[in-house]
Input
Amino acid sequence: MNLILLGPPGAGKGTQAELLAAKHGLVQLSTGAMLRAAVKAGTEVGRQADAIMKKGGLVSDDIVVRIIKERIAEPDCAKGFILDGFPRTLPQAAALENMLKSSKLRVDAVVELKVDDEAMVARIAGRFSCAKCGAGYHDAFKPTKVAGVCDSCGSTEFSRRADDNAETVKARLLEYYKQTSPLVGYYYAKSALETVDGMGSIEGVSAAIEGAIEKLRG
Ligand code: ADP
Ligand code: ADP
Ligand code: ZN
Output
């Protein structure tokens, strides 16, 4: 099963992708995480992406399409994957369709997470993640079970994203409305999309997503 999660920054894509990956044995593919790894590693792609990400813009279609194409071709993705943060533009969606077609694969379900703009900002302000395994947390909404210790791997090191600040969030939200939200119509027209209310609890949203996937796979 191959899935796409759509939604503005802070909607809960990463959180829900983590749950879906564990539940269904899927590989989580986050272009944001891949780009942050490239920035950290100081690769050519990382150098190009860094300045754009700091400003809250979108990295070029060429770069992200190349990254995803290489990653999807790896053997572990054959068991199914969940795309979190890709595609983000119509050309990226078209490129995805082409690469899947040539491997005789398809997208089984696209789930859009809908959240209020204010909730999104609050979610981003409190976001942090485990520096070792990448598990996602929130100061108020999803704290670690034991303070300062990762639930998943026991690490005591955490990080916050450089682009999770009030200024950049506005730019990222604008990019979402301008460039990414047209994908909602694109996938709806293909009868591949369900919209889920992302304002509930993490567990509530998770249950709604499972329902949406079942409906689409009918
Ligand atoms: P995205 O990947 O869409 O940017 P995340 O999954 O990283 O969003 O979620 C943003 C922040 O909000 C994280 O700190 C996460 O723990 C928290 N969060 C996610 N889903 C919910 C929810 N349903 N209710 C409250 N907080 C949430
Ligand atoms: P969020 O979870 O808050 O939506 P991501 O981690 O998905 O953020 O992405 C962080 C940043 O990485 C984006 O603001 C953008 O600069 C870049 N990025 C990630 N995925 C893409 C993509 N598919 N196309 C272009 N830029 C991307
Ligand atoms: Zn961890």
User: Anything to note?
Assistant: The radius of gyration is 17 Å. The first helix runs from residue 13 to 24. The pocket of adenosine-5'-diphosphate (ligand 1) is lined by residues 7, 9-15, 123, 126-127, 136-138, 141-142, 201-202, 205 (CB under 6 Å).
